[in-house]
Design brief:
Layout: H1 4-15, E1 22-26, E2 32-35, E3 38-39, H2 46-52, E4 60-64, E5 69-73, H3 79-85, H4 91-96, E6 102-104, H5 109-118, E7 123-125, H6 131-141, H7 154-164, H8 169-192, H9 199-212, E8 222-224, E9 244-249, E10 261-266, H10 274-292, H11 299-317, H12 324-330, H13 357-360, E11 388-391, E12 394-396, H14 399-408, H15 417-421, E13 428-430, E14 433-437, E15 442-444, H16 453-461
Helix pairs in contact: 8-9, 8-16, 10-11, 11-12
The structure holds manganese (II) ion (MN).
Length: 462
Amino acid sequence: MFDAQVYVSRRNGLQRQFQDGLLLFLGNADAPMNYAANTYHFRQDSSFLYYWGVDDPDLVAILDVDAGRHVIYGDDFTVDDIVWRGPQPTLAERAARAGVIETGPLKDLPRLLSEAIRAGRRIHFLPQYRADNAQLLERLLGIRAEAVNEHASVALCRAVVSQRAIKGTEEIAEIERALEVSRDMHILAMRMARAGMYEREVVGAMEGLVAARGVAMAFPVIFSVHGETLHNHYHGNRMEAGQMTVNDSGAESPLHYASDITRTIPIGGRFEGPQRDLYQAVHRAQKKAIEAVKPGVRFRDVHLLACRSLAEDLKAIGLMKGDLDAAIEQGAHGMFFQCGLGHMLGLDVHDMEGLGEQHVGYDASVLRSTQFGLKSLRMARTLEPGMVMTVEPGIYLIPVLIDRWRAEGKFAEFLDYDAIERFRAFGGIRLEDDVLVTEAGNRVLGQPIPIEMEEVEALARQ
Ligand SMILES: [Mn+2]
């Protein structure tokens, strides 16, 4: 855990954003896998971790704005629990590490909340993504479980986003700790992946490395010769010489901060033919985009700059044609780059996505587009020092999209469909790094991870 003062000052900063009311935070419970006592690896809720620090299941916290009280509710382990789980610190001891002096048993919660409801006090809570917590809110507040998110507090979402979006130095250090592990994992994958091997063999080695460092993955590994499928979690393909494997994977830090890195590996140790030009196109777009990251710039404009760079190279290669300004304005590059340039990174890999992307990546100054491609941009608003963004351009040749758009004659003035047809089995390339917005501009976090075409090839030949 961070120093207790970190959590105290976060909670005080949150409290100052409200005049009155109760701020209710639900921690996560263990989630059953195939029967109640056989559970998934426990992951605490990220906002709970951020304000209350305690990384254990079955806790609820209340910040009473009027009284200035910060309380964690939970039950101490019984002797029976300790027989199975060994000695555990008391709730009071665990809470004290986050500077929380007051604790109480869970049985006190229903009365406390029903009294607050009777007194007409506003109870703010965040949107819920787990069914058991939605049901807990139904029991505590009398709101039907299916409807709880309609009653989630926009004011609390905005207040939490305003704090979590701007990372402190202690959080940056955690993300860089996660990146140390991710760096080793990506280099291992570059060295290990070779023709004749199954994707899962490399995935297993990466997961083993992360587990041996005592941490977890920040999200399920994407590792596939079918990199054109943006989130491909199937790892059963045999890798063949001349293919490329997209490796999008990142470890968590000990305090659960995420890292998110993508590299593309040439199987056989050399990018062949057009792979070379398209790899350089993605790398160029990434370098230009990173260079453009600085305070005061809208991330939507960084995204469009990367799109422009990709389109220029795709035109030089002969896959796009015509007036590129018009092509980008209309979204023709969406044939090759169907998603957004990046997202915020923090305690969640898509940081705070559960609080609503409209509060995280958008504000009154920039509205969400409905255009294919641009609508998938998770973050569009103005960058501020302390934000951490992923910058992850890519080129993806998706056969079903080629067929659909060609049949519709879509963007025929900007897309050379005969040329695109020859790239049908190309697959995909993605390159991703994690970038901190600083007062002066930006800093790519962590020690550099090989990305220049020649250095990746050299590792892939080992
Ligand atoms: Mn990412």
